Amino acid sequence: MTIDTNLTRRVVYEEEYTLYNINSEETMLLLKEKIPHYRDVKINVSDENGDLIIQFYTEAEDQRHFNRTLKVFKKTFCDFIITPPNTSLETVLFQLVRDKKYHISTAESCTGGMLSSRIINVSGSSSIIEEAFITYSEDAKMKILGVDESCFEAYGTFSIECAEEMARCLKKITNCELGIAITGIAGPSGGTETNPVGTVYFGFAFLDKLFSYKKWFSGDRTMVRKKAVSFALAEAIVIIKTTK
Q: Cα(18)–Cα(82) distance, rounded to whole angstroms?
């Protein structure tokens, strides 16, 4: 959802942040309710690339209204801001993992390499990611990761149990600190009553702990995949920061 899309603007000051655990509709409501309106401060909200990004800019040389807006925004959205200003999710994850001297590995199904591609966007990423797999079929999940066939027979490919087992096996074979696994239905076909199109399962094997999530994302095939990758990056940041 976009408030302003004027591509010819002359920006004097600009800051953008990535939000997490809030959707674009909720963001818009909070903005209208809490954020003061100044004619010289423009706000743009977009999730077209999967990440929910809120951008503030002004064409005015006087920065007072801009700073006041940002101050209220940071207070109002403090529980949802996951990146410093003008910093991508993958950059935050890279810096966090590098500083702790950890390593990441990935096993992707429906996202088809999008997650590892985002991580590798950051210069120096070879210091944190050594192995990334696209395990699209059940055979690939068994052959490459070592997932037992009984997991698919008991729970199905699209399940919490499968995502957890993918992550656990991934961490074991790569000897990394964080293994991230994704499996789901990006569409446009293949959905069921239990797992409609847009359903994605995530497994995170971090140190000696295992985390798993079932999420549903709206949009077409590409958007579902982008949103799944955004969730994986953001949740990886949260897990590393909060797990003791």
A: 6
Return the pLDDT at 12.
83
SS3 19: strand
Tokens at residue 122, please? 């950051």
Task: Return the CATH superfamily for domain 89-242.
Answer: CinA-like (3.90.950.20)
Predicted model pTM: 0.93
Summarised one tens digit per residue, pLDDT across range 172-204 is 999 999 999 999 999 999 999 999 999 999 999
CB contact set of 181 (below 8 Å; sequence gap of 6+): 106, 107, 108, 163, 164, 166, 167, 170, 202, 203, 204, 205
Please state, for a pLDDT cut of 90, what percent of the chain lies above it.
Answer: 93
Spatial distance between the Cα atoms of 51 and 71, rounded to a whole number of angstroms: 22
Please report, for the chain, the start and end positions of each structural domain, with discontinuous segments joined by +: 13-76, 89-242
- Nearest-angstrom CA–CA distance, 54 and 48: 12
Distances in whole angstroms, Cα of residue 32 to Cα of each of 17, 76, 107, 121: 18, 12, 40, 34
Tell me the β-bridge partners of 14: 57
